[in-house]
Amino acid sequence: MMTFKNLGLTEKILQGVLAAGYSSPTPIQTAAIPVALTGRDMIGCAQTGTGKTAAFVLPLLDRLTNAPRPKGGRPVRALAVTPTRELALQVEQAIRAYGKFTPHRSVAIFGGVPMGPQIKALRRGVDIIVATPGRLLDHMERGNIDLSHVEVLILDEADRMLDMGFIPDIRKIVARTSKERQTLLFSATMPREVQKFARSILTPDAEFVEVGERRNPAETVVQHACSVASHQKMDLLLHVLQNEPIDNVLVFSRTKHRADRITRGLAKKGFTATALHSNKSQNQRQRALDGFKRGRFQILVATDIAARGIDVDTISHVINYDTPNQAEDYIHRIGRTGRAESTGDAITFVARDEESYLRNIERHTGQRLARKEYGSLTAPEASGSFQESGGRRERKAPSGGRPWKGGSGRPGGRRSPSRRK
Ligand code: AMP
User: Fold this and answer.
1) Tens digit of pLDDT for each residue in 287-338?
2) CATH top-level class of 4-206
3) Does the pLDDT at position 343 exceed 90?
4) For 79-114, how does the pLDDT look when each residue is reduced to its tens digit (9 = 90+)?
5) Which residue owns the Cα nearest ligand 1 atom 20?
6) How far apart are CA 89 and CA 2, in angstroms?
7) Ligand 1 atom at minimum distance from 26 CA
8) Domain ranges of the chain
9) Closest atom of ligand 1 to CA, residue 94
10) Quick one: which atom of ligand 1 is closest to the CA of 313?
């Protein structure tokens, strides 16, 4: 069996991994860590939830631990740029966890919160910065951050940064780092624009590391689609919540307004639910996410800003209340469950006018989603139209399982160990 030690990590880092409770590296870690440890540039293509954060954080910490500390002051030696605030926080938490036995200091820098505490942390001196592009540039322009000593640059979820229009910002940031740096770029998907961008900032001998089928979602997620009339989506959601063995659920809606409406509807039925979208302040977003992580809310209703970065290991179900109109969003959404080695379920509600989105997703993933029926809610009249997309039509009875009674307390406890590793 492959071990973290075999990958060539030093003792202090191995202790951090042990403290995190990991027994063996995931495939992306096995593939990426030895390459990153050579000091070469690397492009890592891995689905969300595959353990890619540790795949870049561990070699990063290893390098900072083994390379001589620069003389004089405490320059910033590593920078990780992420597309969302939530992801920045999570990567920084991972650095703290895995780097527990190293002396490195890190800080997360992102917008939506006051600059004061960030400036204070920067003045104290940090070795590693994890940041979103906008706020990072703000600090750079004010002279709060000097990147000229950065030895390792990590760009996480590059495809998302591209979608969000961050590439010009990233170029400005990259231009301010040392030419001697090592660059590690990670992306869940590898569209041509990402490849072009990568070529422009990585060294020509950069290694490409890919794990699994590029376009298929993590294999640990069981995926289904449910055909439903638009006006019955709320009823179907309640039915699923009451009939599936559910821990924590992430529900995705297309708009902020709908997310709020779904949240109110669930609360009315006694479920503890909270909404996460970009109309909320950063504080509200963090409170919603923390409350969800701690189990205060069993359901988080989110728009796509939450599709990335959220790492809550008890998410048993992702429910797409609305079918995502971009196949890549679908992959990111469902990647919120089935993290690392646990399994999860993804259920996508498909109204008649969303069927073309579903076909698009199926084309993209090269896989037809099994259809799931929930009695009269997924009326044959509506699901009949699925037949035109061809393939095997799977008739499945609604799964029994432990019912989850909404309201207070944990929903039927944790899943059985056989479901989660
Ligand atoms: P990521 O894809 O980096 O967001 O990681 C997904 C989840 O997998 C996180 O909850 C990690 O804590 C967890 N994880 C990462 N590496 C391992 C490992 N080697 N063994 C078990 N869990 C892991």
Assistant:
1) 898 899 888 999 999 998 766 667 777 788 999 999 999 888 888 888 777 7
2) alpha beta
3) no
4) 999 999 999 999 999 999 999 999 999 999 999 999
5) 22
6) 29
7) 19
8) 4-206, 221-395
9) 12
10) 10
Q: Structure pTM?
A: 0.64
User: What is the pLDDT at residue 83?
Assistant: 94
Q: Does ligand 1 lie within 6 Å of residue 309's CB atom?
A: no
Nearest residue (CA) to ligand 1, atom 14: 51
State if residue 93 touches ligand 1 by the CB under 6 angstroms criterion: no
Cβ of 97 closer than 6 Å to ligand 1, yes or no, is no
**From CA 298, how far away is CA 407, in angstroms rounded?**
9
Cα(313) to centroid(ligand 1), Å: 9
Residue whose entry in the numeric block shows the structure tokens 């359901």:
299
**Residue 164 predicted with pLDDT over 50:** yes
Percent of the chain with pLDDT over 90: 61
Name the amino acid, one letter, at 193: E
The fold for domain 221-395 equals Rossmann fold (3.40.50)
Cα of 81 to ligand 1 centre, how many Å?
19
**Statement: residue 368 has pLDDT above 90:** no
| The predicted structure's pLDDT at residue 234 | 96
Mutate to test the pocket of ligand 1, among 3, 339, 420, 421 (most ligand atoms within 8 A of CB): 339
Q: How far away, in angstroms, is 314 Cα from ligand 1 center?
A: 13
pLDDT in tens, 227-246: 999 999 999 999 999 988 88
- Is residue 182 in contact with ligand 1, taking CB distance under 6 Å? no
Lowest mean pLDDT among 50-54, 76-80, 305-309: 305-309
* Atom nearest to 340 CA in ligand 1: 8
Domains 4-206 and 221-395 share a fold: yes
Centre of ligand 1 to C-alpha 166, Å, is 26
